[in-house]
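I have been asked to look over a protein record a colleague put together. This is what I was given:
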Amino acid sequence: MRTLKIVFIFTILFAFAITLVSAQTTSVKPRPQSQPTPAASRPKTRTRHAAKPVTQQPEKQVDVKGLSDSNSSAESSQAQVPASSPEASSTPKTTDKPAEKPLAEVAAETPDPKDPILALNDQIEAAATPQERLRLQLKLAELFVADNKKSEAIAELHTASSVEAFDPQSFYNIGNALARMGDTDGAITSYRKAINQRNGGYSRALNNLGVVLLRVGRWDEAFDALSSALKVENFRYAEASYNLGRLYAARGQMDLAVREWRRAVAVDPHHSAAAQSLARAGNEGRITVEEPSTVTRGTNTLAATIKPATPAIAERPKASPSPNSGKPLSLDATGFTLLQKARTAAEKGNKLEAVDNYQRLLARQSGYFGPANLELSFVLIGLKRNDEALANLLQVTNREGLRYPISYYHLARIYEMKGDLKLAEDAFVQTIAAYGNENNQFLLDLSRVREKQGNFRGALDAMEQYIARVKKDGQDVMWSEERLAALRQKVGTPQPK
């Protein structure tokens, strides 16, 4: 009986266990075997990458070497997102939206950014101020130059130069850019505009203006510009002194050239060009102080023969030296002091004081001392005392015209002002003979004077020589072609096809 009860209990437990297992099996659905998802229907996730910054390049100023009148700035136009930031590392959740292409593929299909020249044109049109517009136009001109589009660059700079706005620095930079591209007239116009906007107090623009004028042989204007640059800087501007020395050397005034190169080195001991010019000049052209017993008054003497002062200045024409060319030029202590006082007064603009000291010196030298007579004549021309200037110039040309060929040029100018056109023509011819190919500007003067006399054939000949020389130097002045055509018409010469 007891055995039956135990068997019964086990039977019930076994049945209960089977029922429980069966219930669990039927409640869990079988997991179907996973199928591969087609590539076309797979949602693609997109990772946001840190944006690459677009950095604005520093503004490149078209500046003459050695000057530092430019401003520059470099600012990032878009901030860079650090790689460690949440934006740079997070991955967006997938959605049921249509699949998006990765950024790399999108960038590859996006058109290239706008051409920088077109972009700058848009910025120029949208410029808020005339000053901003000028700076953008300078950048555009630089892009044209980099793209070998010189004519477009010059046209853009001319457009900028004509803008009526107060921005002397931009007009100065425009002048530098035009000077580097050989557009002398455009450079001169821009420099003068910058100088006028600073009421004449822009020393670097004055210096660069003087350099451009010296390059094309407009020596009187170059002298005024370089002298003004030195006055603005209280005669402590090494580059202007160096360039003024070059001008003096070109005119044959080596004593004054040496003075300016010495001044340049005193202001800037590292000015190698001035130091080299001094080394080449040696003791030539110096005026020395001698003991009274060794000074012969009333005679012209010079320290030594003149040689070219710098490589930039052409060699003097091969001409016979004047009788006194090899003799030393010397003054007694009093005469030397009077000469230095006269020169100092002249360069500071004290013309009457300069005239007085030159005349006192000449009185001690029986009326003639070459450098003093020449320099006095320049001061007298500035005072419009042309007859007195003429008398001094005639003494120089008659005695030492080959040593001081610039005297022929100023003599011709005075004759032209007085209406003595034939004498002016003869003096210009002597100037050209003395300087050779060193200054093409003298041919323009000769052509002008001949045209005034009605000598159109002679005027045409001089003009054709001028244009041939200018083109040989790589310049091309449109107005000279126009003048040539007008002279040919007056002569009756057929125009070239």
